[in-house]
Amino acid sequence: MSSDPLKVGLKIRDARKQRRLTLQRVAEATGLSIGFLSQVERDITTPSLSSLVTIAKALDLPVSALLHQPDLPNAVSRREGRVTYGINPAWISYERLSTTFPGQMLNAVKMNVPPRYLSETSSHEGEEVVYVLSGSIRYVIDETIYELHAGDTLHFSAHRPHRVHNPADHVAEVLSVGTQQLFSDTPRHRGPSHAGAPDLAKSQDNSAANDIAEGETR
Questions:
Q1: CA dist 211 to 71, 139, 202, 205, Å?
Q2: Phi-psi region at 86: left, alpha or beta (left = phi > 0; alpha = psi -120 to 50)
Q3: Which of the two ends of the chain, N or C, has the fewest CB atoms closer than 10 A to its terminal CB?
């Protein structure tokens, strides 16, 4: 599943003009360069998911208005049931790993980073932890280079300017967990930590009732 990159660029430009915002204003709000934003609107380049979320926030839009992402209504997702999606089908793709519930703070995706991929430099709220599942990847944070290979992790403040590069000739698979709100769907459930409590209480009530019943028959 993917979105038409042309439609994404047009939607961003139309939303910006409807709000009478200049590229300069959006650049200041997002931390992205005017040149990069102009290229995104003209479909010359494709933003990363985190940058798209940042742009949507600056335009006061839910990210779902720019990109269709698969819903994940349950706490558990199975590998065979997950859908791969992307902003541009020829570029980086993602698999959604996290759901939403009241109080939820973490968001997780698996990134399939194609050979020679180089993202824009961006920064946003929160923090990120990345874990390389396969292949190798290069993170550049404040111009410090971190070469990561399968099994390596990196934890950093997303406020710091950072970019991602896959210099290899094969796809890198990376697990990314962060606090930036990547999804705009409505919470469907209360989360496993809360949902389990009523079941436990019900089990305890049933057990107590059984004990009383057994005592009365003795």
A1: 44, 60, 14, 10
A2: beta
A3: C
Start-to-end CA span in the chain (Å) = 63
Tell me if 44 sits within 8 A of 36, measured CB to CB.
no
**CA pair distance 153, 32, nearest whole angstrom:** 26
What's the sign of the alpha-carbon dihedral 11, 13, 14, 17?
A: positive
Q: Which tokens in the block code for residue 11?
A: 């939607």
Token output for 33 = 């360069």
Return the amino acid letter for 78. R
Residue 188 burial by Cβ neighbours in a 10 Å radius (0-12, 13-18, 19+): middle
Report residue 77 as tokens: 């997702």
What's the angle, vertex CA 49, arms to CA 6 and CA 129, rounded to 5? 165
What pTM was estimated for this model as a whole?
A: 0.80
Per-residue CA distances from 178 to 157, 175, 217 (Å): 10, 10, 56
User: Residue 34 has which token pair?
Assistant: 């005017």
| Residue pLDDT, tens place only, 53-110 | 999 999 999 999 999 989 888 889 899 989 999 998 778 999 999 999 899 999 999 9
Distance between CA 100 and CA 37 in Å, rounded? 29
- 3-state DSSP: the chain helix, strand, coil percent, rounded to 5? 35, 25, 45
Token pair belonging to 124:
């946003």
DSSP tag of 189 = S
